[in-house]
Amino acid sequence: MRQSTGWIIIVVLCASFVLLLTRVGAEVNEVETLSEAFDTNIELGELFLSSNSYILDSEGRLVSEIYKDTNRIYKPFDQIPQLFIDSFVSTEDRRFYEHEGYDTAGIARAFVANTSSSETEQGGSTITQQLVRNIYLSHEQTYQRKLSEILYSRELEKRYTKDDILELYLNSIFFGHQAYGIEAASQYYFSKSSNDLSLAQVAFITAIPNNPSFYDPVNHQDRTEERKQWVLKKMLEEETITEEEYIEATEETIELAVQTRTDMFPDYVTYVRDEFRDLVAEKEGFADQLNNATTPEQKEDINAELDARIQRLYEEGIAIHTALKPLMQKKAVQSVVSRIPNEDIQGSLAVIDNESNKLIAITGGKGYEKFNFNRGYQDFRQPGSSIKPLLSFAPYIDTTGVGPSAKIDSKNKCYPDGGSKEYCPKNYNNKEVGSVTLNQALASSYNTTAVALLNNVGLEKAYSYLDPFHFEKVSDSDKHHLASALGGFEKGVSPLELTRAYTTFAHNGVYSPAHGITEVVDGGGNVIYSWDEPETQVWSQSTNDKMRQMLANVVKSGTGRNINVNAPYVGGKTGTSNSYHEIWFVGLTDQYTAGILIGRDQGQEGPKSIESFAQSNPHQRIFNDIMN
């Protein structure tokens, strides 16, 4: 009784409202128009529907879908199948192309149909009203909301074409299971595009929005099937399908193929999400603002604004194209797991393609879960002897012009190191050497040679060779101590940073930072972001050729002799921090550069030795795995 009374009131009010608009419009020309009053008092704003964003691999294949609670794949009107237009117009608003946003006759018709049935078969709302309700208003059942809905709908019809409204409507409808819009629903329930659905499947999906919980195909497919038949009947009545098509569709068996959310390669995706944030910060000036901020509060506000900007971009529906090589990524993850069976020891690595100078794989650690601490680029450790080629040997050769066969006095001695202090480096196992060639010194990783070279070049000059690499945690205090020749940094470097730096040996002494993102495009396929690729000649090509020869000797007869890779060129350098807290290998072929770090996570008790485990050379075995 109360429902019938409510519908009567709505019909009367709507009729009165239409009559009032007509008479007022005819009689009062000098009074402010309804549209003007609407603009003054109601903020309609620009219509915006969020859309999913995507991360793609190097071949353009989907790796990860980005959305929060709304899974929507936005479909422009010219790509919407006509069957969906016909099904929704036939069932929801058959006079859609005739009315101006509200349909008084339709409301009356719905009242008659619903009062003669035990269920609510028809709603009095037009497609435009439903769109308004989905975007601007709540779904509460009140007369005030209903009148507001009509007012909004009338104005919406004046501002947008029928095609525009249908486009927005068919992209905004909720189909259950976080799916909004016909494309997301098609992908979710049938694992294919809306353009590839049969008439029966279209009617099946059209049945859901009337009550997504009641007509949920996953849990109540029989109910959805029943309403699908009703949808087909309405389409037949409206003559949008033929009798033959109707019969064929009613007899078709519907088989669901529910598609789960695509979200692969958590190590790489986590890195790309952070890199995208850095890319936007650089391109839109946030990075400069953060550098110029003087208080923590200012930085917090800038970061909040940047995060809001990133979220807006994700909601606009962008595609982040990356250099990810899935096979290499899988191999890297598998190798870390298989080569480091010890539960309390972790490993990470980064792999860069030398030809494209792009990051093609990165691992965050064994058992990595998305958005957790990623050891591949967030773990800063002492690099040990792996820093020697960059800080001691290449700068010395570049400033003196000598070759690998040049000899250097490498006997034990002490050096002034910070005022009255002295620094007295020792070789592994306290081995004493005299005058040795640079080639032998790097292959055997003599500490005394590395310190002698750094002292000869000078700390300031040697560190200028590291400047192009922009090591994030290398501080000014590191630049004042000769111990840095052996990797004795205050905070250290990450595997990604060190791997990037070693790509210089693959590019004739030229450095350009390798990234994972190749380009970012909007929904229309337009490139909106890409990295600038500045190049810096760090050392001469002659120096680079000599260093490549020496790095190859490390693999052939030095500390890297467990490397066994079938490639025309293989070179690299091992690294061990004090007390075997970490072990490194950074190496390259003509095709790839890779850096591997192994060590225990640093807890409150501080770093722990992995010396016994290190004897099996797991870092070099991992390099063999991924390069072969």
Automatic annotation (TrEMBL):
It is found in: Cell membrane. This is Transglycosylase domain-containing protein. Keywords: Carboxypeptidase, Cell membrane, Cell shape, Cell wall biogenesis/degradation, Glycosyltransferase, Hydrolase, Membrane, Multifunctional enzyme, Peptidoglycan synthesis, Protease, Transferase. Residues 60-235 form the Glycosyl transferase family domain. It holds the Pfam family Transpeptidase. Residues 347-627 form the Penicillin-binding protein transpeptidase domain. SUPFAM superfamilies: beta-lactamase/transpeptidase-like, Lysozyme-like. Its main location: membrane. It catalyses: [GlcNAc-(1->4)-Mur2Ac(oyl-L-Ala-gamma-D-Glu-L-Lys-D-Ala-D-Ala)](n)-di-trans,octa-cis-undecaprenyl diphosphate + beta-D-GlcNAc-(1->4)-Mur2Ac(oyl-L-Ala-gamma-D-Glu-L-Lys-D-Ala-D-Ala)-di-trans,octa-cis-undecaprenyl diphosphate = [GlcNAc-(1->4)-Mur2Ac(oyl-L-Ala-gamma-D-Glu-L-Lys-D-Ala-D-Ala)](n+1)-di-trans,octa-cis-undecaprenyl diphosphate + di-trans,octa-cis-undecaprenyl diphosphate + H(+); Preferential cleavage: (Ac)2-L-Lys-D-Ala-|-D-Ala. Also transpeptidation of peptidyl-alanyl moieties that are N-acyl substituents of D-alanine. The lineage of its organism: Bacteria, Bacillati, Bacillota, Bacilli, Bacillales.
